[in-house]
Design a protein that fits this description.
mainly beta
C-alpha cells in the first residue's frame, strides 16, 4: 500500500520549534522528490518547501526561508521538516507529498499525499 504518514504536529508558542516527520511505504522512496504543503482554514493549500531525490537540492517558500529546513533519510524512507521561529501565521495542517518530477511547487504534480498533521502556533 502506497502511503505517507506525517507526525510531529502540535501546539507551540510563537518563537518555538517543531519537527515534522513523514514516513513513506509502498513505493521506491529514493526515486521521488518530496515536498511539504500546508493549508490554513479558509485558505488554499500552499507550498512550503521541497527536496530532491538525493537530498542535494532544496527549495523553500519565501515565507519560511531561513526558518524551516527540509531533510530526508532515504535509508529510513522518511522526510523531515524542522520548523524554527514559528509564527501564528504558520498555523495550518501540514502535508507531505511525493512527485517523480525533479522538483515541483505545484500540488497537482504530486501523486502521493499524507493525511496531514496539525500545527498550531499561539501568540
Amino acid at each position: 500500500q502506497v502511503q505517507l504518514v506525517e507526525s510531529g504536529g502540535g501546539l507551540v508558542q510563537a518563537g518555538g520549534s517543531l519537527r515534522l516527520s513523514c514516513a513513506a511505504s509502498g513505493f521506491t522512496f529514493s526515486s521521488y522528490s518530496l515536498a511539504w504543503f500546508r493549508q490554513a482554514p479558509g485558505k488554499e493549500r500552499e507550498f512550503v518547501g521541497g527536496i530532491s531525490w538525493s537530498g542535494g537540492t532544496t527549495d523553500y517558500a519565501d515565507s519560511v526561508k531561513g526558518r524551516f529546513t527540509i531533510s530526508r533519510d532515504n535509508a529510513k524512507n522518511t522526510v523531515y521538516l524542522q520548523m524554527n521561529s514559528l509564527k501564528p501565521e504558520d498555523t495550518a495542517v501540514h502535508y507531505c507529498a511525493a512527485t517523480l518530477l525533479p522538483r515541483s511547487r505545484d500540488a497537482n504534480m504530486h501523486m502521493v499525499w499524507g493525511q496531514g498533521t496539525q500545527v498550531t502556533v499561539s501568540s
